[in-house]
C-alpha cells in the first residue's frame, strides 16, 4: 500500500468528510446560516420606523431597519455610520467567521474525547495530514455557511421587499466580495484549529479561546472584504490565508508532536 | 528481527518518573503478556510505542525501524484504555471511519468480516453509546483487528468480556500469530486468561522491567505443590508445618505443601499420626501466584 503524502491526506480527508457529513452539528450550523439572515432581515424590516419611549426619561427612539438587501453582506458606499461600525456592519455575513469556530472546536475536541485520536495517530506518524485535513474540513464548512448566508440574505431581502440596488457597484464586485470572504476563511480556520489542537478534549476552552482570538481579527473582515471588492481583495485574502495556514499549520504540528495525544 | 525492541525507555510527567530505563523485547510471532500493578507504567509504555505521548529518553524500534517510521506505524492496531469510537455514530459507521483511516480497499467486506469474528454483526446498526460494556469492548477489539495489523497493542482487552468473548479472543489471538510474522503486546490483570495464550511475559514494576521470560521459562520456574484435605484440617496443618518448610491454606480451604515431596509421603505421615486424608493432588502454581510471589519478594 502506498504511504505517500497524497494517499495519507486522502484517507484523512475521507475520515473527516465522512464524519462531517454524519454530524448533526454541521447541518444545524448550515441551517442557521440560511435561516438567520432571513429572520434578521424580515424582523428588522418589520420594526423599521417603530418608536419606543423610555418610561423614565420620556425620550423617544426610532428603530432603523435595513433599506437594502446587500447590507447583510457589507456596508454600501455612502452608508457608513460610525466608521463602518453600524449594526449591520457587525451583525452581517461576517458573523459566520466567528460561528464556524464552534464547529471546528467541537469537531476536533470530539476526536480526543472519544479516543478516536488514538486510532488516528497510531497509524499516522506524520501529524501534518491531520492538521491539513481539519483545516480543509473547517474551510469547507465555513465556505458553505457563507454561501448559504448569502442565499438567506437574498431571500430575506426579497421577502422583506428591500431594494437590491448596488449603489454604483457591479455584480462583479459582489462576486469578488463573496470570493474574498471565502478565501479569507482559512485565516480564521487556522487559528481555530491551532487553539482546538492545543486545548484537545477541552471544548469549552477551545471555543472561548477561538472566540477571543477570532474577535481580534473580526473587525478587519469588513475592511478587507468590502462590497466593492476587486480582484486585488481576493488575491490579498488568498495570500493572507496561505500565510496563516502555513504558519499556524507548522505551529499546530509542533503542538501535536510535543504534547500527549490522549 | 524483533517486533518491538525497547532500550532505556523513560517518561517523566513533571517530577514523577512513570517509566525509567525500560528494556523490552517482543519477538516476532509472540503474544507478549505485559504485566504489572496499577500505575506501574504499562499503559504509558504502550502509548509511547504507539507514538501517542512523547518519550523522555531511550529508543523504540518496531520491526527494526524507528517507531516514528510511517510505514511501520501504518501496520499497527491499537486498543488502549477505551475503544476510540464516536458515541453518536453507529458501530458500522465507527468501523467504516477506521477503515477509511486505514485506507482499506474493500472496506465494507473487511468490516463485515471483523464484525462477524467478534460476534457483533447483529449490532452493527446500534449506536455505539447504546452498546453494553462488553459490546463496546468487542467493537474496540474489532477496530484494532481491522486491516490485518502486523502489530497489535492491546491494553486490558479482556475487560468487560463474558466467558464466550474471552474464548473468542483467545482463538483470535492464537490465529493471528500463526504465520509467525505478526505479534501482539497485551496487558491484562486477568492473569489466568493471559496465561492461556501468552508465549512471552514481561513484568514491570515502578516503570522498570523486573523480569522477561518465555512461557516455557515461566512453566519451569513455577513450583509444584501438593494440595490436600483431611478430616482434621487444623491438626494436619500444624503437623505438616512441623515437618515441611512451607505449608499454607488456600482460599478454597485446601492445605498446600510447597516442599519437594510426594502425595504418598504426606498420606503416610498423616496416617501415622492418626489423620485420614480425604482428598490429595499435585498441582503447579500459575502465572497469578508466580506474579504475586514475585511482587512480594520485590517489596
Describe this structure as you would to a colleague.
The complex is a heterodimer of chains A (262) and B (299). In chain A, helix 6 (128-160) packs across helix 7. Chain A has helices spanning 5-22, 24-46, 87-90, 96-114, 116-122, 128-160, 171-199, 203-224, 231-258, and strands spanning 51-53, 60-62. Helix content of chain A is 70%, strand content 2%. Chain A is mainly α and 262 residues long. Chain A is built from nine helices and two strands, in the order ααββααααααα. With 299 residues, chain B is an alpha/beta fold. Chain B has two domains: 2-213, 3-Layer(aba) Sandwich (Rossmann fold); 222-298, Alpha-Beta Plaits (2-Layer Sandwich). Helices cover 36% and strands 29% of the residues of chain B. Chain B has eleven helices and 14 strands. In chain B, strands 6-7-8-3-9-10 form a six-stranded mixed beta sheet, with helices on both faces. In chain B, strands 2-1-4-5 form a four-stranded antiparallel beta sheet, covered by helices on one side. Chains A and B meet through helix 1 and helix 5 of A and helix 2, strand 6 and helix 3 of B.
Record keyword descriptors for this entry.
heterodimer; A: 262 residues; mainly alpha; two-stranded antiparallel ribbon; 9 helices; B: 299 residues; alpha/beta; Rossmann fold; Alpha-Beta Plaits; 2 domains; 6-stranded mixed β-sheet; elongated
Amino acid at each position: 500500500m502506498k504511504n505517500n503524502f497524497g494517499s495519507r491526506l486522502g484517507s484523512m480527508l475521507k475520515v473527516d468528510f465522512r464524519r462531517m457529513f454524519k454530524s448533526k452539528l454541521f447541518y444545524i450550523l448550515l441551517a442557521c446560516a440560511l435561516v438567520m439572515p432571513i429572520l434578521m432581515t424580515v424582523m428588522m424590516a418589520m420594526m423599521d420606523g417603530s418608536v419606543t419611549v423610555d418610561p423614565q426619561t420620556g425620550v423617544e427612539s426610532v428603530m432603523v431597519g435595513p433599506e437594502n438587501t446587500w447590507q447583510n453582506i457589507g456596508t454600501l458606499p455612502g452608508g457608513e455610520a460610525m466608521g463602518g461600525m453600524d449594526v449591520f456592519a457587525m451583525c452581517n455575513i461576517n458573523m459566520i467567521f466567528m460561528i464556524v469556530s464552534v464547529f471546528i472546536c467541537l469537531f476536533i475536541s470530539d476526536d480526543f474525547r472519544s479516543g478516536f485520536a488514538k486510532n488516528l495517530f497510531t497509524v499516522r506518524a506524520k501529524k501534518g495530514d491531520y492538521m491539513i485535513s481539519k483545516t480543509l474540513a473547517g474551510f469547507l464548512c465555513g465556505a458553505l455557511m457563507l454561501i448559504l448566508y448569502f442565499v438567506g440574505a437574498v431571500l430575506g431581502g426579497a421577502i422583506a421587499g428591500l431594494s437590491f440596488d448596488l449603489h454604483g457597484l457591479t455584480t462583479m464586485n459582489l462576486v469578488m466580495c463573496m470570493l474574498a470572504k471565502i478565501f479569507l476563511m482559512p485565516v480564521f480556520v487556522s487559528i481555530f484549529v491551532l487553539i482546538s489542537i492545543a486545548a484537545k478534549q477541552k471544548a469549552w476552552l477551545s471555543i472561548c479561546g477561538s472566540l477571543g482570538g477570532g474577535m481580534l481579527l473580526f473587525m478587519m473582515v469588513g475592511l478587507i472584504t468590502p462590497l466593492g471588492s476587486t480582484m486585488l481583495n481576493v488575491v490579498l485574502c488568498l495570500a493572507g490565508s496561505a500565510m496563516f495556514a502555513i504558519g499556524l499549520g507548522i505551529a499546530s504540528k509542533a503542538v501535536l508532536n510535543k504534547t500527549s495525544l490522549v | 528481527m524483533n517486533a518491538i525492541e525497547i532500550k532505556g525507555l523513560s517518561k517523566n510527567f513533571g517530577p514523577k518518573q512513570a517509566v525509567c530505563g525500560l528494556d523490552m523485547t517482543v519477538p516476532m510471532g509472540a503474544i507478549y503478556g505485559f504485566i504489572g500493578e496499577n500505575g506501574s507504567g504499562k499503559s504509558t509504555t504502550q502509548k509511547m510505542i504507539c507514538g501517542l505521548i512523547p518519550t523522555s529518553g531511550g529508543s523504540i524500534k518496531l520491526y527494526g525501524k524507528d517507531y516514528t517510521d510511517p510505514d511501520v506505524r501504518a501496520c499497527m492496531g491499537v486498543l488502549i484504555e477505551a475503544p476510540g469510537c464516536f458515541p453518536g455514530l453507529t458501530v458500522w459507521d465507527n468501523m467504516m471511519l477506521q477503515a477509511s483511516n486505514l485506507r482499506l480497499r474493500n472496506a465494507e467486506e473487511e468490516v463485515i468480516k471483523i464484525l462477524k469474528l467478534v460476534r457483533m454483526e447483529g449490532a452493527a446498526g446500534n449506536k455505539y453509546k447504546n452498546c453494553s460494556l462488553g459490546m463496546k469492548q468487542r467493537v474496540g477489539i474489532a477496530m484494532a483487528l481491522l486491516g490485518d495489523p502486523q502489530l497489535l497493542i492491546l491494553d486490558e482487552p479482556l475487560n468487560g468480556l463474558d466467558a464466550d468473548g474471552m474464548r473468542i479472543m483467545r482463538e483470535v489471538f492464537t490465529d493471528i500469530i500463526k504465520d509467525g510474522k505478526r505479534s501482539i503486546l497485551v496487558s491484562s490483570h486477568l492473569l489466568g486468561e493471559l496465561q492461556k495464550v501468552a508465549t512471552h511475559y514481561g513484568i514491570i514494576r515502578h516503570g522498570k522491567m523486573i523480569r522477561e521470560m518465555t512461557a516455557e521459562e515461566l512453566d519451569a520456574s513455577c513450583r509444584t505443590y501438593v494440595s490436600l484435605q483431611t478430616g482434621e484440617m487444623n491438626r494436619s496443618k500444624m503437623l505438616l508445618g512441623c515437618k515441611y518448610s512451607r505449608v499454607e491454606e488456600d482460599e478454597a480451604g485446601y492445605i498446600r505443601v510447597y516442599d519437594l515431596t510426594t502425595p504418598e509421603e504426606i498420606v503416610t505421615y498423616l496416617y501415622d499420626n492418626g489423620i485420614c486424608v480425604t482428598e490429595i493432588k499435585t498441582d503447579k502454581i500459575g502465572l497469578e501466584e508466580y506474579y504475586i510471589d514475585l511482587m512480594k519478594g520485590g517489596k
